[in-house]
Write a structure and sequence with these properties.
The protein is 36% helix and 17% strand. Strands 3, 4, 5, 6, 11, 13, 17 and 18 form an eight-stranded antiparallel sheet that branches. The chain has a three-stranded antiparallel sheet with strand order 7-8-10, with no helix packed on it. A hairpin with a 5-residue loop joins strand 7 and strand 8. Keywords: Membrane, Transmembrane, Transmembrane helix.
Length: 601
């Protein structure tokens, strides 16, 4: 017997509790699964329902376990956003890197043939892309492979850029890109300071033919053709022969043939086959003249379009109509420039072959990486002008043909010519997107005797500078920096998402391994809650097993406060306590002597 006060102190010191408390502590200590813990807490709620405050002592823990499961279930769902919600962008793994080129081993004629075949293929593909993606309702899956589905443009009526009142009714139409960012729009991945802005401007105007057309008779005095004089073609300065630009054979008018389109170009700093007359001579860009023949087309309805106009009766009842002119010419100027987003400085506008020289002289102050990027864009854009868009498709380049049935032209709007100009520009922009990707993705068409030629500085080795080296490094880096949205069986991850998940997981793991020893150290060091710390330690499965063995005299144990208790004799063996018919372990010592004990005996 001990004094009552002493007993009270003992209860307070050791924290005497009921069985539910100890079961709850044991559950918290040893259950590793929140689902299993929730089950045990709910079972405790039922079996200990007659105990005081059993509801508040068990149900909140069960709720926390279920909440834990729910939180991590939600996190598991949202963790999928690491790949799902991340950018859909990919970087191309280059197979061949460089600029498409034809082998120099071929003859000039064969080289030309190969180049024309490649151009025709690329323009045809670009026409499909432009039709599918460059519209307000473009839904084709192919539109999602490029960094952006389309390179956006602004359109507006503008003043005629040509002289001598040569524009039909003074009309002109401008299509201008909205600043093409080399990274955001073309997918050339680079730091912000290494980006360039590429601009393209196209201005077109239908031309008058009165005063520029001349009817030519045959030997018998019968009208045979109409010659159109807008400059020398083919142009040969050495011969200085003034020839017509284009001629139209009148027999085509009733030959049951439909549209035909031809184009000539006056190229800045490049080979040209046409020398425009003075009113059409404009500096700072490439000039084109396009001739649209309607031939035997019969229009279902009249229209007042300056190119596709049809108001000439085809029959006595005036129910169908023929074209107003044999040939309707359109003149266009296409200009290009680069801008530096770091200082908002832009080069002057110029032709596509001259823009690099103009850029160097224009004060853009590009760094080496920007120069490499601009050079790559220029090499890609050379085959994406109006000339390629029309010349490679000739009689198939008109949107008006979408409303054709044999020679019958279904009704057209009065601005059909503007629709055509916009479609040609969009085709060129779609071709530009593909040509830029081709640098890292490889050729769009595999042809014999062709290769992807590495880009490098053409500076003579003796004059090779640090800037040249930096530009060449830029060419090499771009082989691995082309962004696309074509997954091709890959999965994209958000580095930030992975970092967050990995960091949280690592933090939780570290806490799970350190919180117990750290808490025990604090309690021991500060002398606060030492008894509770020891009780928590004893609730461990291995310590509970030790207590069971000690109660039933199974071995001599040490390490009651260690993470893993052990027997004093490492080789001591004993039997597990056996239960009697009432489920109680027999109080019989069943230790088996060790080999050391046997030898000592």
């Amino acid at each position: 017997m001990y004094p009552k006060g002493s007993g009270t102190h003992a209860y307070a010191t050791h924290g005497a509790h009921d069985g539910l408390h100890y079961q709850r502590q044991h559950t918290l200590r040893n259950q590793t699964s929140p689902a299993a813990a929730a089950k045990v807490f709910l079972l405790q709620l039922w079996y200990w329902r007659h105990t005081k405050r059993s509801f508040w002592r068990t149900l909140p823990w069960a709720f926390l376990a279920v909440l834990y499961i729910g939180v991590f279930a939600v996190l598991a769902i949202f963790s999928s956003r690491v790949s799902d919600g991340a950018s859909t962008s990919r970087l191309i793994l280059p197979r061949d890197c460089g600029v498409w080129a034809v082998s120099k081993d071929l003859t000039d004629f064969d080289r030309l043939q190969t180049s024309l075949e490649k151009t025709a293929y690329d323009v045809t593909n670009a026409a499909g892309t432009a039709r599918s993606c460059y519209s307000s309702n473009g839904t084709s899956l192919s539109c999602n492979t490029a960094p952006v589905a389309m390179l956006e443009t602004d359109t507006s009526p503008v003043k005629c850029p040509f002289g001598n009142n040569i524009c039909f009714d003074g009309k002109a139409f401008e299509v201008k890109t909205k600043g093409i960012d080399s990274r955001a729009h073309l997918g050339i991945n680079a730091r912000s300071a290494e980006r360039v802005i590429y601009d393209r401007q196209t201005v077109c105007a239908p031309l008058v033919t009165k005063g520029y057309g001349k009817v030519v008779n045959d030997s018998e005095g019968v009208a045979e053709r109409v010659e159109y004089h807008y400059g020398y073609q083919p142009f040969d300065e050495s011969k200085n022969i003034s020839t017509y630009t284009y001629d139209y054979l009148l027999l085509r008018w009733n030959a049951n043939i439909t549209y035909h389109v031809n184009i000539w170009e006056d190229r800045v700093a490049g080979k040209t086959l046409w020398k425009p007359i003075e009113p059409l001579s404009v500096e700072g860009g490439d000039t084109f003249i396009i001739f649209v023949e309607q031939n035997s087309i019969i229009h279902w309805k009249q229209n007042k379009d300056p190119v596709f106009g049809a108001n000439q009766p085809n029959d006595a009842d005036n129910t169908t109509f023929r074209a107003d002119r044999y040939v309707a010419p359109i003149a266009c100027i296409q200009k290009y420039r680069f801008c530096n987003p770091n200082n908002n400085q832009c080069s002057p506008w110029d032709g596509r072959y001259q823009i690099l020289e103009t850029m160097k002289e224009g004060g853009t102050n590009f760094n080496a990486a920007q120069i490499a990027t601009a050079n790559r864009i220029v090499l890609a854009h050379l085959g994406t002008s109006l000339y390629e868009a029309i010349n490679a498709r000739a009689s198939k380049c008109l949107r008006a043909q979408d409303k054709m049935s044999w020679v019958w032209q279904l009704p057209l709007p009065d601005n059909q010519w503007e629709i055509e100009v916009l479609s040609w520009v969009q085709l060129g922009l779609a071709a530009l997107q593909t040509a830029v990707q081709e640098y890292a993705a490889g050729p769009t068409l595999e042809l014999p005797n062709t290769l992807m030629q590495e880009m490098k500085s053409d500076t003579d080795y003796s004059n090779y500078t640090a800037v040249d080296r930096a530009i060449d490094e830029g060419y090499s880096a771009m082989c691995h920096n082309q962004i696309v949205h074509d997954s091709q069986g890959t999965m994209n991850f958000s580095l930030l998402g992975i970092a967050i998940i990995f960091g949280l997981g690592l933090l939780i793991g570290i806490l799970s391994f350190t919180i117990e020893p750290f808490t025990a150290w604090v309690q021991t060091t500060l002398g606060v809650g030492v008894a509770r710390a020891n009780a928590w330690q004893r609730d461990d499965n291995l310590q509970t097993l030790r207590l069971l063995f000690e109660t039933h005299q199974r071995g001599a144990w040490k390490g009651s406060s260690d993470l893993v208790p052990t027997t004093m004799s490492p080789d001591e063996v004993f039997f597990y306590p056996e239960a009697n018919t009432h489920g109680l372990a027999r109080e019989v010592y069943q230790s088996v002597p060790s080999k050391i004990d046997e030898r000592s005996a």
